[in-house]
Specification:
The complex is a heterodimer of chains A (586) and B (133). Chain A is α+β, with helices and mostly antiparallel strands. In chain A, helix 3 (43-54) packs across helix 9 (152-203) and helix 12 (322-329) packs across helix 17 (389-426). Chain A contains 24 helices and 7 strands. In chain A, a hairpin with a 2-residue loop joins strand 3 and strand 4. Chain B has one domain (35-131). Chain B has helices spanning 11-20, 26-30, 35-40, 44-81, 95-131, and strands at 89-90, 93-94. A two-stranded antiparallel ribbon of chain B has the order 1-2. In chain B, strand 1 (89-90) and strand 2 (93-94) form a beta hairpin. In chain B, helix 4 runs antiparallel to helix 5 (95-131). Classes of the chains: A alpha+beta (586), B mainly alpha (133). Chains A and B meet through helix 5, helix 11, helix 13 and helix 23 of A and helix 3, helix 4 and helix 5 of B.
Chain lengths: 586, 133
């Protein structure tokens, strides 16, 4: 569906982001501006910025794609992404802000007064950030590929360049404005089209979304296969076009696709007839629309384990994401941090109403994506498919622009926070120059990773980043904030015990083919076992090593929990670690 | 008759003797020690103040979190044990769709709003407690 308007929309979003960024360049002068927007951001701006930053490729295209393919089990993604903020609000928002930490390693050091804990937290924050950046770049590749037919790597490259340039020039203050702007852009870009699409669906007679039939082509549909694909046809059907079926080359003629499995070669383009049931990807469950709409229909092994693992990862992982933490520093105090989080909860709830509707309509209107496996594209393809002519193209352009905004904003937030970690903890380069060098590095690594990963759905990849965060940094935050008995040894042991297995499992699922092994679900949804492991190890080891309780822990607790305006003296007069802004003055 | 009234230094020494002498009366001795100072000097009492605040906030946070997330967390189990629940329809939507898409948002917002209100209240109470002179 190459569309001129969509290309224009993507360009406008990219240029707009750069322009708003340059406008920020004129306002951001000091190092402190660069890092934390001088803490002058109001709760609404801040909440919009958090929303803009948080709604990533996974939210914009990924969730709809998964729901489209697997049904209501996947609703746990949007629910978990939202509920994560309730956990964050109730357990860490205010204390985190009061700790004065700019990044997670800053928090680790402020709480534990230990370079060791800080180092481990830095490495984990980097790993999570890069794991999270990877699906953003893949999503960008997919979007650009869907709307323009450009090769996959181009979108990733465009996003990396725009984000790196923007972050290097403007730093965090411009990013706050960019992000806030992006939330509203994304909300518009996903809401306006779905309103029209629902009207059209009603006008078409509001076909039931849950008929006891297999998805079928609504019209003669031309389908391009981007990669070698094994499909399964229920009934024999007659297709026309050019390409390769079961190793036989076909040049612009028809062929009968018998029932059973078929290998379709890369680059094939076939037209499938109207009303024929859609063959499905061999690796995907095949359901009638009625079965699809019921829980536990995704055809995974151990669906209950998968659901709980996903719930644990998303509920607890949000607080451990490096780019989310940064935003709390820009609140003036702990109370404002709480109010900001509550607003975020509202903003996210509104946004997440939309993707499931795209997923459901996709069953009726774009069923061929079940066959090509490009389920993530459902949001992008629906508008042009359902609405003919210029209206559909414009809506398609709006969605494409919004999707691109999603990749840009999440990647920007991640790159800012990763650059912060890199410049302070890895490269040890202070000042604006160090930050700029780190920015380039933060963007290049995931770009390189996109070339070796095995295209899994973007929301699944994001789920893995959440699992690592939930197993390592979440115990650090929760136990560190609420228990004064956690020791430096316990903190390090807990982070490693939870984080290393989760990270390993994530990398194995992403870069190796585990196929149908029974333990596949343990690796692709690791949170249910790694999170309890992280928490238990951190607490038990702490109890065993009570001699290593960090000095001045009581004063740290005062700092974390007491309201700011009481004149309580909380470690600032003591020889504590330099907090983020003090450090960045150098 | 013996002392001339306008002289300044005289009343002070007499007053000081009166105030400092009853050292055993706890309320008077405590007066200048506000809760803020107790906390800053890390006295036992200050530690109690802080433990109370942290305990109250932890209880509040955990209960809001457990009630909200626990309610959500029961759903997969419910749908696994009794698949028939998945077939109920509310407002034209299947039950799982209704619960997860529509009903969770207000529930989470309500829980969040309740938490913010209670947390701010307990901080106000803490502030009043420690700032009482």
């Amino acid at each position: 569906m190459t569309s001129g308007y969509a290309i224009v929309a993507v360009l406008v979003v990219a240029l707009g982001t750069i322009l708003v960024g340059t406008y920020g360049l004129r306002v951001s002068r000091t190092t402190s501006d660069f890092y934390v927007a001088s803490r002058t951001v109001s709760p609404w701006w801040n909440a919009s910025a958090i929303g803009g930053e948080y709604l990533s490729a996974a939210s914009f295209v990924g969730i709809a794609g998964l729901i489209f393919a697997y049904g209501p089990d996947m609703l746990w993604f949007p629910v978990g992404y939202t509920a994560g903020y309730l956990v964050l609000l109730t357990m860490v928002a205010a204390p985190l802000r009061r700790s004065g930490a700019y990044t997670l390693p800053d928090f680790a050091e402020a709480r534990f007064r230990s370079r060791g804990v800080r180092a481990v937290a830095s490495i984990l924050a980097l790993a999570i950030g890069w794991l999270y950046l990877l699906p953003q770049l893949e999503g960008a590749g997919l979007t650009l590929n869907t709307v323009t037919g450009a090769p996959d790597w181009l979108g990733a490259l465009v996003v990396t360049v725009v984000v790196t340039a923007n972050v290097m020039s403007g730093g965090m203050r411009s990013i706050t404005f960019v992000q806030a702007f992006q939330y509203w852009l994304k909300l518009t870009a996903i809401t306006v089209p779905i309103v029209f699409l629902i009207v059209v669906w009603q006008a078409h007679g509001a076909d039931s979304l849950t008929k006891p039939e297999y998805p079928a082509f609504r019209q003669d549909t031309e389908v391009a296969f981007q990669r070698p694909t094994t499909i399964h046809a229920e009934k024999a059907l007659f297709i026309k076009g050019t390409g390769e079926v079961d190793g036989v080359r076909i040049e612009n003629t028809g062929i009968v696709l018998t029932d059973g499995y078929h290998r379709i070669g890369q680059g094939s383009e076939f037209t499938f007839p109207k009303d024929a049931p859609v063959p499905h990807l061999s690796t995907m469950a095949h359901n009638t629309n009625e079965m699809w709409s019921l829980p536990m229909s995704s055809g995974q092994d151990f669906p209950l384990y998968g659901a709980y693992s996903l719930i644990i990862a998303t509920f607890l992982g949000t607080m451990g994401l490096p780019h989310v933490i940064v935003r709390f520093y820009t609140n003036p105090n702990g109370t404002a941090a709480r109010r900001t989080t509550l607003i975020v909860l509202g903003l996210l709830s509104v946004f997440y109403l939309m993707p499931p509707m795209y997923g459901a309509l996709g069953r009726l209107y774009t069923p061929e994506l079940l066959m090509t496996g490009q389920t993530d594209a459902v949001v992008l393809v629906l508008p042009t498919r359902m609405i003919d002519g210029i209206g559909g193209e414009l809506l398609g352009a709006l969605v494409a622009g919004g999707a691109f905004a999603a990749f840009l904003s999440t990647s920007s937030g991640l790159v800012v926070s990763l650059a912060g970690v890199l410049s302070q903890d890895v490269l040890r380069l202070g000042g604006v120059r160090g930050f700029r060098i780190s920015t380039v590095l933060a963007g290049l690594v995931p770009l390189a990773m996109t070339f070796v990963s095995t295209g899994m759905p973007v929301a699944d990849m994001v789920g893995l980043a959440f699992a690592v965060a939930a197993s390592s940094l979440c115990p650090l935050l929760m136990l560190g904030i609420w228990s004064s008995r956690i020791t430096t040894v316990g903190a390090i042991a807990g982070m490693l015990a939870g984080g290393v297995p989760a990270l390993t499992a994530g990398l194995v699922t992403m870069f190796a083919d585990t196929g149908d092994a029974w333990y596949e679900i343990l690796l692709s949804r690791p949170a249910a076992w790694t999170v309890p492991l992280g928490f238990t190890v951190m607490y038990v080891v702490s109890l065993l090593t009570q001699r290593h309780v960090p000095a001045g822990v009581q004063r740290t607790m005062v700092k974390l929990h007491a309201p700011e305006n009481l004149g309580l003296d909380s470690s600032s007069s003591h020889s504590g670690p330099a907090s983020g802004d003090e450090r960045s003055q150098g | 008759m013996t002392t001339p009234p306008p002289r300044r230094p005289d009343p002070k020494p007499t007053q000081r003797v009166v105030v400092t002498s009853p050292r055993t009366r706890a309320p008077r001795a405590r007066r200048p020690y506000s809760g803020t100072r107790e906390i800053n000097e890390q006295s036992e009492l200050g530690a109690v103040y802080m433990r109370t605040l942290i305990g109250a906030q932890r209880r509040l946070g955990l209960s809001v979190c457990l009630v909200a997330c626990g309610a959500l967390g029961l759903l997969p189990l419910l749908f696994a044990i009794e698949p028939e629940f998945g077939k109920f329809r509310i407002l034209g939507l299947g039950l799982p769709w209704f619960l997860l898409c529509v009903a969770t948002c207000p529930m989470l917002l309500l829980a969040g709003w309740f938490y913010v209100r209670q947390a701010e209240r307990s901080e106000r109470e803490f502030a009043e407690l420690v700032e009482r002179p």
